[in-house]
Write a structure and sequence with these properties.
This protein is α+β, with helices and mostly antiparallel strands and 290 residues long. The protein folds into three domains: 3-75, Rna Polymerase Sigma Factor, Chain: A (Orthogonal Bundle); 117-162; 168-285, Nuclear Transport Factor 2, Chain: A. It is built from 13 helices and seven strands. It has helices at residues 3-26, 29-44, 54-75, 96-103, 108-115, 119-130, 135-142, 146-162, 169-187, 190-196, 207-211, 221-228, 275-280; strands at residues 197-205, 217-219, 235-239, 242-249, 252-261, 266-272, 283-285. A seven-stranded mixed β-sheet has the order 2-1-6-5-4-3-7. α5 packs antiparallel against α9 (169-187) and α6 runs antiparallel to α7.
Length: 290
């Protein structure tokens, strides 16, 4: 077997873990895929005999790629991009195994908080607190010694735990409500679904969503919740940094759930199903299996 074939086989053994790491670092499914692909390209150009621990080598290379992407994003802020079916049957498209994987997803609220961290803080926090990478391995990635890397992770941890979020309060509150909404829908818990909806919530569907079975307009928490229980098949997403949900068909956005929130409840939900409108949205869909 040629070195390239051996590398490819070994790389596939690590791909899922690398993708999970990259997504938590970048908060973007499309950028995570790009980072993992770059790690593969660097591996394919490397000498197999010089790599003692492939898993550690890949983690280090991927982390450096992600750090560079985060630094570039900070210097020039931008939000990264990423057969017919009936909306009324969307919930049936999610099997129990997929539901369990979806429930293990990174919450939108966590993504909002992570976006407030500096690049080095985010890398150190994700690697250590989420993937148990030792600080001795993290240190050269972020260009610090082990003690400084520990401080980066500790500072990030305090911000995550104690809500030192800068200007992200409104987005975080919305993300927490959307997370709670999706959890209630997936559990089929009607009372919890009602609890996150304002009593006078308004559900509005555009022509594209109506063509898939959504009512044009629904007012009141009880009637809206009856329909919104079908949202259990939706996937978390960010639209220009705004927490949303999206129903995917063949990995393509079919209906977007866009939320307006009050102080502690969801006040309005817009269902966007128009294909042209969806194509113009700067939507970053979260992976559906972590």
């Amino acid at each position: 077997m040629h070195d390239t074939d051996w590398f490819a086989q070994r790389f596939e053994d690590h791909r899922d873990r690398l993708t999970r790491i990259a997504y938590r670092m970048l908060g973007s499914a499309s950028e995570a895929d790009d980072a993992v692909q770059e790690a593969w390209l660097r591996l394919s150009r490397s000498d197999a005999d010089a790599i003692e621990n492939l898993g550690a080598w890949l983690t280090t290379v991927l982390s450096r790629v992600c750090l560079s992407m985060l630094e570039s994003r900070r210097a020039r802020p931008e939000v990264p991009l990423d057969a017919d079916a009936d909306l009324a049957t969307a919930a049936d498209a999610v099997d129990p195994e997929q539901e369990a994987l979806l429930a293990d997803a990174v919450g939108l609220a966590m993504l909002v908080v992570l976006d407030e961290l500096g690049p080095a803080e985010r890398i150190a926090f994700v690697l250590h607190d989420m993937f148990a990478i030792p600080f001795e391995q993290i240190a050269p990635i972020v260009g610090r010694n082990a003690a400084a890397a520990r401080q980066l992770a500790s500072r990030a941890r305090r911000r995550v735990q104690h809500g030192e979020r800068g200007g992200a309060d409104d987005r975080l509150r919305q993300a927490e409500l959307v997370d709670a909404f999706l959890a209630a829908a997936r559990d089929g818990d009607f009372e919890r679904l009602l609890a996150v909806l304002d009593p006078d919530v308004v559900l509005h569907a555009d022509a594209g969503a109506r063509a898939l079975g959504a009512p044009p307009e629904t007012r009141g928490a009880h009637d809206a919740a009856q329909f919104l229980r079908r949202a259990r098949g939706a996937t978390p997403a960010l639209l220009d940094g705004e927490p949303t949900l999206v129903w995917l068909v063949d990995e393509r956005p079919r209906v977007l759930f866009r939320f307006a929130t009050g102080s502690d409840r969801i006040a309005a939900i817009e269902l966007i199903g128009d294909p042209d409108r969806l194509a113009r949205l700067d939507l970053d869909v979260a992976p559906d299996r972590w």
